[in-house]
Every structure is written in C-alpha cells, then in structure tokens.
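Annex B. Sample input.
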Amino acid sequence: MGSYAEKVMEDLKARYSYQPEFLQAVQEVLQSLQPILDTCKKYEEYKIVDRIVEPERTISFRVEWVDDKGQIQVNRGYRIQFNSAIGPYKGGLRLHPSVNMSILKFLGFEQIFKNSLTSLPIGGAKGGSDFDPKGKSDNEVMRFCQAFMNELFRHIGATIDVPAGDIGTGGREIGFLYGQFKKLTRSYEGVLTGKNLLFGGSLARTEATGYGAVYFAESMLADRKESLEGKVCTVSGAGNVATYCCEKLHAVGAKPVTVTDSRGMIYDPAGINVSILKQVKEVERASLTRYKELVPSAEYTAVKDYPDGMHKVWTVPCYAAFPCATQNELNAKDAEVLLKNGCKCVTEGANMPSTLDAVHAFVKAKIAYGPAKAANAGGVATSQLEMEQNAGMQSWTFDEVDGKLKKIMQNIFKNASSTAEEFGQKGNLVAGANIAGFRKVADAMIAQGVC
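Annex B, continued. Sample output.
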C-alpha cells in the first residue's frame, strides 16, 4: 500500500481492532487499489478512501419475541447502510449466531464493490441478527421475523434500502418479513427481494448466485481456451448457493463431487445427486448424514475428523473448486493442497471464503481465480432484476432472467479483466474487480460532493 491507503488502514485498525473480518475485507481491497490511487490523485484529494470505509449509517436494535414455550427471547438486529452513491442500499439479511458488527461491516463493504460491478444502480448494505433459525418451528421463525421487521421497516423502502436473503434467510423468512412490512406500512412494494413468486418474486432468483458462479468460471476458462466440460469439481456448502452451483455444473457437463455443512462433508464420486441434496436440505432440513443414508455409495466425513488446520473438502483432487459456504473457509494450507493436486480454477460463491494468504497463493500461481465480489454477484444482480420487474409490475420468464444473468456475469468478467490489464496486472481479477468497482463508486461520490 502507498502512504495514503496505509494511513487509512492504520487508522481503521486502531479504531476497529475488535472487528477482524471487516479489517480483512478492507485490507484486501486497499492492497489492490494502489495503481489507481497512484494514477488518480483526485481520490486522495477528496478523501474517498477515508469516506468509503465508513458506513453512511449503522443501525442496531433489540429484537424480542416469544418462543413456543411462552418464554421471551432477545436477539440483536442490525442494518449497515454502507454506501448509496450509485443507487439505493442493497444487500442481504443474515440470520446466524455468528452475526455481529464486524461480520456485517465486512459484508456491507464487499457489497459496495460487488453491486458496482454489476453495472446496475444499486448501493451497498448488509444486515441481520444473531438469531438462529435452525431447530426453530415455523411459528417461532415467524414471530422473530415479525419482531425484527417491527424495527427495520422504519429504515427501508423500494427506493431507499431493499434487503434480500442471505445465510439463514430463505423464502420462508422473506415471506414472513414481507408480510409484516406490508402490514406496518399498508403498502405493497418491492422492498424485499427473494420473494415468493405469488407476491412479486422473480424466476431464477433462487438459482442465481450458484448459476452465476458457474457462468463466471466459464468466462474465466473460455478466456484461457479451457472449459468445465468433463471436469471434476469440488463444492463447499449445502445451502442455496452450493446446491444450484452443483445443478449448473451438471448442466454444463462438469461433475461436482462434494458438498459440506457445519457438521461434515459428503464425497460422492459419481457426482452429487442434486435432487437428493434438495430433498435433504430444502425439504427435510436435515444434516448431510441423511444424504449418506439415501446414497450409501457416498462417503461422509465429520468435522471432527478433518485434517488439523484444514478443511477436508479441499483435499479432494479437482480441476475447479467452488467455495460456497462462508467466510474464511479456505486457508493457506487448503490453497497449498488444492494447487498441489492440480486445481486450475477457484471461483468464490460465498463472501470472502478465502483468507488473504490463500488469495495471494492463487494470484501468485496465476490460476483462473474469481474473487467473491465478482464471481458471486449473480444473486444481487438478479435481485435488482426482481426490483425492476416489481417497479414495472411485470414478470419475466425463467429463460429471460437467466439470459440476463449470464450476460451480466460475462460483463463482470470482461470489466474486471480489462481493468486489470489497464493497470498492468493482466489476469489478476482481484485487482481488476476491486479497481473497477471502486472507480465507479468513487467518481459518483466526487460528483455528488461532500454530503
């Protein structure tokens, strides 16, 4: 980093030493921005980096609800409205016990650049709660969502802030949140995305992040005159992103052989059976041990049996890896083993799934590496397409939305690739994505003045 970026980073470390994920996300971006900061001194003159690393608004609140036993429960709710320079705030709501200010600030910060890369008019935000929907009844989830929306509704709107789903927030939760918003505001508007098709949802939204990651991988490989057809792929996660990543990999002729959840990993050498995976995770909401029961030929490894300091899924030899679970799930040791085993492509379906050391290893090895803010932008891009449909009171076909999604992902790759080359770092999509995403937002901030 140069002196300007380094000073901002040191100030952040002093101020937010207790927010490691946020500091990691900022450091990853600032390390890439030096070429443009050296070339365009206006960004330092207008203190853009100082401004862009601070949220425009941070909202926290108490969420109190009653469980099925009649006991009062208390959770913490948040919304980080990070940057609205190019459009209304847009970003998911995460429901998971790990949620805290550091997690949400890192996610919101990433969202700024991810949304910018889509070329769609949406700003960056993130929110959620430390509530855990796992093991809760539908009624308990409903009561929590209603209590959460009782506060959140004051801060969102179709042209202000449009939340979406994330880890722990699927169609069920979005439905409960939307119902309460409608009751409180007496308005029927596209204030949430990922909605049910019965009330304004978009076809292909469920599939978008997983499909988009595969489209991005195809773009990277096509640029190298390679493809996924016939290739073995490893996928982490077993939620929405991983499931539909596996589905699209099958569709393009690849063979995904792994999925994971918080308890363990499935290795299915015949290829993950997506129908069974959906039954286990979307219908039964069960552990992957259930997949093993339904597919006896598959191998199951519990987390307690993982190699020390590593994640078992990344020890499986593959041509392409798709980390689709959560942040920092792929570390330097994992990266070393992936590269040693001949992995030629890593495409991030989750948010910041690779540690900084792992990122550096992939960039140094010059493999096809798609960073999260570029490769997993398909979900938020399709959310904006849902907003567009809601605003026009229309509904597009699955093929129409999927076609737009594929084109958006191809354009994100072209933008990141050409920007990397423009700044003398050909093939480095980390630098290309960060610089391209930053430049659009920074120029908009300058044009709008200090406000």
